[in-house]
């Protein structure tokens, strides 16, 4: 188990990595799934042997409220059907923490429940916000869970210029689920999970 890192340089590096992903040209992405709520693309990850996924859709709400539903906090467990528990382990400052969370089994439990410990950071970006995270090797792994690993991930949320009550939400996710899993099952699950994330989030914001 590693000690906790110094949050400031880790937050800065994480933000820079996400901004770099955000500037990747359209030609490098391949569409993986399209629904009425979101489009999901993917490209080979630079971090591990899987994919970096990009998801994008317009969400009818203001940026701050959307990000409050996504980042670690009381809202996320209420609406995110994949997440089964979440604990804040350390808080560095208001926008920076370490959290441990667990996810439900997927694809008829081909993918067993997972546990993650992530460093999470929320900061301003253009006229909106970026909330981003990366997994840490920290804390004991609980029985009955496989410890997964999130390489740099994040959500950019910016108001639409001509309709500030709507926001463009763009996510970058690259999750190494670990354990003995067929890659095709992981890829199917990731595309569907990201598309469902948008529909679940929209329902939660309307309540």
TrEMBL record:
Q: By its UniProt entry, which Pfam families does this protein fall under?
A: START
* GO cellular component, as recorded: cytosol; endoplasmic reticulum
Ordered alphabetically, the record's keywords are: Lipid-binding
- Report whether Ubl conjugation shows up as a keyword of the record: no
Residue ranges of every copy of the START domain listed in the record: 10-207
Annotated GO molecular function terms are: cholesterol binding; cholesterol transfer activity
Picking any one GO biological process from the record gives: cholesterol transport involved in cholesterol storage
Q: What is this protein called?
A: STAR4 protein
Query: Per the UniProt entry, what species is this protein from, by scientific name?
Result: Melanocharis versteri (Fan-tailed berrypecker)
């Amino acid at each position: 188990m590693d000690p906790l890192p110094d949050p400031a340089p880790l937050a800065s590096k994480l933000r820079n990595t996400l901004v770099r992903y955000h500037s990747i040209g359209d030609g490098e992405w391949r569409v993986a799934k399209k629904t009425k709520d979101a489009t999901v693309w993917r490209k080979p990850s630079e971090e591990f042997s899987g994919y970096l996924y990009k998801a994008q859709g317009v969400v009818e709400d203001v940026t701050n409220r959307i990000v409050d539903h996504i980042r670690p906090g009381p809202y996320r467990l209420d609406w995110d059907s994949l997440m089964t528990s979440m604990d804040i382990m350390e808080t560095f400052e208001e926008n920076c923490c370490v959290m441990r969370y667990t996810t439900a089994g997927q694809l008829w439990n081909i993918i067993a429940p997972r546990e993650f410990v992530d460093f999470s950071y929320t900061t301003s970006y253009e006229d909106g916000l970026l909330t981003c995270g990366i997994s840490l090797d920290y804390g004991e792994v609980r029985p009955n869970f496989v410890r997964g690993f999130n390489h740099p991930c994040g959500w950019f949320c910016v108001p639409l210029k001509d309709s500030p009550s709507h926001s463009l939400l763009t996510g970058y996710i690259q999750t190494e689920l670990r354990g003995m899993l067929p890659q095709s099952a992981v890829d199917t699950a990731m595309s569907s999970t990201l598309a469902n994330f948008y529909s679940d989030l929209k329902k939660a914001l309307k309540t």
